[in-house]
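Session log. Operator J.P. requested a structure for one protein chain; no other inputs attached. Running the standard single-chain path with token output.
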Amino acid sequence: MARKKRMTKDQEFQIMKLVLDKFLWLGFIVMGWGMYTSIRDSSVLPGLWYMVAGAVLLILFVILIVKEYEILQ
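Structure written below.
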């Protein structure tokens, strides 16, 4: 059986940055769509739900990053 290659911490972190960057864009796009919807409909409530959903996505990704990697001071 072939032995699996191991990644260094730096390689793992670089891949994580590439993947999470896409998810962070997704969160901001959802929030931007909410802002556009609010302006287009002249009503805040429909767009507000999109903005809240985008904010929740971003908060979940921050929790994921903090949980996965230690933040050193």
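Operator note: Helices lie at 9-41, 44-68.
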